[in-house]
Amino acid sequence: MTFLETILEEILRIFKRDGIEANTQEDIIKRLDIRHSTFQELFSSKADMVLKVVRFDIKEQERQQARLLANAQDPVEEVMLLLQDGIKNIQQTNPQYVLDLQQHYEEVWLMCLEYLNSNSYHLISEIINRGILQGLFRKDINIELVTRIILAQLNMMLNPQVFPPEKYNLSEVYRSIFLYYLRGICTEPGGKLAEAFFAKHNL
């Protein structure tokens, strides 16, 4: 990992714990224990820092997804692992981080949405297509609609206004939404794999 990547990783950790605006640029420099001149060599402004941190986060998520998919046994497990990882990331992130992006760094937030809508959509649709070819997902499903529904369900379950975390167990919500939905688009062999995944991970 390069010096810049090490710095970006630490700033990302701070952002996900505290939010972005909770710390001034001066606070971040002190936390990083680097010189002002070093910071200025790396970032032209706080907005530039936020942009580079988010780009770094996206690259790290892509690497994590690649590792997950490499260890998956079948397309059903691939979808479940990706969804599970997405939920884990949200649970480990202060909601203020996302709110700060939306309110203070609109261009960066739009970049995040574009990434989610393009990368996640294409990744899941490709997995579902392979699952159909392998006889794990039904042949009569509309891949585009199914993919968008899965992404919409993920966004819905992560919305604290719909499922307040103090009232609902996220694992139970996850099971209620995705086990039953995936069983509906799976063939009999695919449905058994989905149930086995939930049993294996104690969900």
Automatic annotation (TrEMBL):
Domain (Transcription regulator YsiA C-terminal) ranges: 69-178
UniProt cross-references to InterPro entries, sorted A to Z: Homeodomain-like_sf, Tet_transcr_reg_TetR-rel_C_sf, Tscrpt_reg_YsiA_C
A Pfam family the protein falls into: TetR_C_4
The protein's name: TetR/AcrR family transcriptional regulator
